[in-house]
Amino acid sequence: LKTAALISGGGSNMAALVAAAKQPDYPAEIALVISSRPDAGGLAKAEAAGIPTAAFDHKAHDRPGLERLVDEELAEAGIELVCLAGWMRLLSPYFIERWHNRLINIHPALLPSFKGLHTHQRVLDEGVKIHGCTVHYVRQEMDAGPIIAQAAVPVLDGDTADILATRVLMAEHMLYPHALALVASGRARVEGEHVVYSGQPS
Ligand code: GRF
């Protein structure tokens, strides 16, 4: 399945998807990486892996303008599924509707808890003992949408937000390739706004 990864920063999740997709039986191909920032560190990683890239400066475009450019790139590359991987721009209802059930995101918390930003600090502030990450289909409401897969990590005494972020990120790098494989192979699908799994690829 021709898949694009949308990034804004370091792109470590994108790199994890690229590495997984190099495996012979993997059901998705990362065929395009798009960045909302021309200086995103992830662009060099994608180029080193031989993946076509496109970069736009979100500051130079309004939201419809940026999304039009992104959409053109996706169409030109024949992309069928889009993975948000640290893409830090809100997407318009138009774009989200256009990619309905073909647009997935990774969020660094166990949704529906801790939507939004600064999840690791907020987890520490609340004294929560289990944290993690979620891959979900994107819906209009931010950090909502049918959950495809989740991974949990412990919160340990002495953790700082940075230490916790690193532990969660390691879990993200395992979870996202797993979740993408479920979606791309047809083993995960949306039924009544929940994801159900089946053994049969469809
Ligand atoms: C990840 O923690 C992701 O969940 C969050 O932003 C971070 C992106 O990291 N939305 P990277 O760009 O994939 O390294």
UniProtKB/TrEMBL annotation:
Keyword Signal set for record: yes
Binding site for (6R)-10-formyltetrahydrofolate: R63, M88, R89, L90, L91, N105
The keyword Transferase is annotated on this UniProt entry: yes
EC number, UniProt record: 2.1.2.2
GO MF annotations, alphabetized: phosphoribosylglycinamide formyltransferase activity
Domain Formyl transferase N-terminal as annotated: residue spans: 2-180
Ligand binding (N(1)-(5-phospho-beta-D-ribosyl)glycinamide): G11, S12, N13
Pfam families named in the record: Formyl_trans_N
Site feature (Raises pKa of active site His) residues: D143
Signal sequence, start to end: 1-15
Catalytic activity: N(1)-(5-phospho-beta-D-ribosyl)glycinamide + (6R)-10-formyltetrahydrofolate = N(2)-formyl-N(1)-(5-phospho-beta-D-ribosyl)glycinamide + (6S)-5,6,7,8-tetrahydrofolate + H(+)
Family of this protein: Belongs to the GART family.
Functional note: Catalyzes the transfer of a formyl group from 10-formyltetrahydrofolate to 5-phospho-ribosyl-glycinamide (GAR), producing 5-phospho-ribosyl-N-formylglycinamide (FGAR) and tetrahydrofolate.
Record's protein name: Phosphoribosylglycinamide formyltransferase
Organism per entry: Flaviflagellibacter deserti
